[in-house]
Amino acid sequence: MAVVKETPDPDALLRSVLAQVAPGTALRDGLQRILRGSTGALILLGQNKVVSAISSGGFDVDIEFSATRLRELAKMDGAVLCDRDASRILAAAVQLLPDPSVPTNEQGTRHRTADRASRQTGMPVISVSKSMNIIALYLDGRRYVLEDSAVILSKASQAIATLERYKQRLDEVQGALSALEIEDLVTERDVALVVQRHEMVHRIATEISSYVVELGTDGRLMELQLNELIAGTSEDRHLVIRDYMPQGGRKQRSPETVTAALGELDSAGLLDLVSVAQALGLPSDATTMDNSLRPRGYRLLSKVPRLPEIVIENLIGHFGSLQKILSAGVEELRDVEGVGETRARAIRESLSRLAESSLQERYV
Length: 364
Hints:
The protein has 364 residues and is an alpha+beta fold. The protein has helices at 10-20, 26-37, 49-53, 67-73, 109-121, 149-183, 188-215, 220-230, 233-244, 255-263, 267-271, 273-280, 298-301, 309-319, 322-327, 330-334, 340-363; strands at 41-45, 55-56, 59-64, 79-82, 88-96, 125-129, 134-139, 142-146. The protein folds into 3 domains: 10-146, YojJ-like (1 (3-Layer(aba) Sandwich), CATH 3.40.1700.10; 147-295, DNA integrity scanning linker region (Ferritin); 296-357, DNA polymerase, domain 1 (Orthogonal Bundle).
């Protein structure tokens, strides 16, 4: 059997390096000391054969990393080489000689060297510019300027305010969907709207997560706010997709496939409900958006207290749709594997309360 090699996520790699240089870390402290000293520096994180091949001169130190040591060693000409997790300083005053044919858009000597060295070695390279007074991170062909915490906090606060508004709208359309499901009045448009709002919330939350990583210890409060706002949204999105994605056929989709398809939509595509419905796997166009859909019941059944997932699967497998489950009596529910008399009554009562509260929220 062929082994499928997973492709590393470049964004995940960038986030991991940003966490290393976030405020509160020894590496960021050292970079700030260099910046305040106006000396400039070139720091390469990692060691492999390519790094050795493009390194010339300097001297080995192999000492434990500290901000003070990095600051002092950076005063000399040349680059400072550290291990990948920046726990040790391996060498100093090293001249990096990357292949000049490696493409780069940078202009300054230090920045051009940093960009080319990162591209050639695959390692993160940090350039501290004395003249421009900035810290730039080069990784995976990208240049990322490390901003001051106050600037990032301002951006993150604006993003949190946006997320609050989008989350409120998501709660509204999900509540409306619950009422429509109970009344058996769901259309493709209703489902696409809920899925669209879920994707919007997810994208904003992902952006804020990157800010939290950059903020390091300064982002703890922001992280708490983010976690509170998005609690349960990933699970809800997964359940909505399971309720409505088509099943059967040669091109059978999984919830993960649908989630990936939604993530590939650009901004214009995400605003187009037809495109969202097509990403869900529905054969939609402008003329079918008002066609009726029937949920399987995963989302509403998940709201029943202490109902195991295997029992939810059995109920949906037995009845086939939420409407049939809602209309089933205690005796019919009891006959489903894993339910029994006591659980059947609990399911019946919980679904009745959910139906009543959903309709009240919609019409009262």
